[in-house]
Specification:
220 residues, alpha/beta, six-stranded mixed beta sheet, 6 strands, 11% strand, globular
């Protein structure tokens, strides 16, 4: 198990190196390390992602789903991965869960989708909307970290357990126990909450997300 974890870490380090990262501070995890991005804009980074074939998800994708919104947004939402609608359109959160997220942004935060930035842990759709594997997330995570480095958000909202686990590398904490907490994530505050698709299946949890978004609103 130790050798497997070392291999995964080495793979991730090589991936970061390919993006131009030179070093990591010893007192930070890979998830919170702040570095200068290797490109100057999200457009340049998106071009890189379109050329990516580093994991098996590239074989079945119709489109990459890079992300959209304000390149200098104060607030960044990070979901799990694209679904069928997103794979078809190339845009994040455009299905039923996306419609609910838009309502949350507009009605609770009193913002528009154009005011925030929305992306996912992985940029290609996992088959049958399954959870991205550790290998897939590890390969794709440098793209997300580059997005964060370019955007420089003040607040990052992790939508669901998969987003929280892969962002923080804390795989043991259930989302039900950590949601609503205000965590340090480099120069940003990280607030985990339930994924909109979870709310579609469990409408009673909307009150918890509402409370979490009020915390986000106070920090904006």
């Amino acid at each position: 198990m130790i050798n497997l974890e070392k291999a995964k870490l080495l793979k991730q380090l090589y991936q970061y190196k390919s993006f131009g990262f030179e070093y990591f501070q010893d007192n930070q995890t890979l998830g919170t390390t702040q570095n200068q991005p290797s490109v100057n804009s999200l457009d340049e980074l998106e071009h890189k992602v379109k050329q990516c074939h580093l994991c098996q998800l590239a074989k079945s994708r119709k489109n990459i789903v890079f992300g959209e919104g304000d390149e200098h947004a104060t607030l960044l939402f990070v979901g799990e991965g694209p679904g069928a609608n997103e794979d078809e359109s190339g845009r994040p959160f455009v299905g039923r869960a996306g419609m609910l997220l838009t309502k949350i942004i507009e009605n609770v935060l009193e913002l528009t989708r154009e005011d925030v930035y929305i992306t996912n842990i992985v940029k290609c759709r996992p088959p049958n909307n399954r959870v991205p594997s550790v290998d897939e997330a590890s390969v794709c995570k440098p793209y997300l970290m580059e997005q964060i480095a370019i955007i420089k958000p003040k607040i990052i909202v992790a939508l669901g357990s998969t987003s929280y686990h892969y962002l923080t590398e804390d795989y043991d904490m259930p989302i039900s126990k950590i949601r609503g907490e205000i965590l340090e994530f480099g120069d940003a505050k990280l607030i985990p909450t339930y994924h909109p698709s979870f709310l579609l299946r469990n409408p009673s949890a909307k009150k918890e997300v509402y409370a979490d978004m009020l915390k986000v609103k106070r920090l904006l």
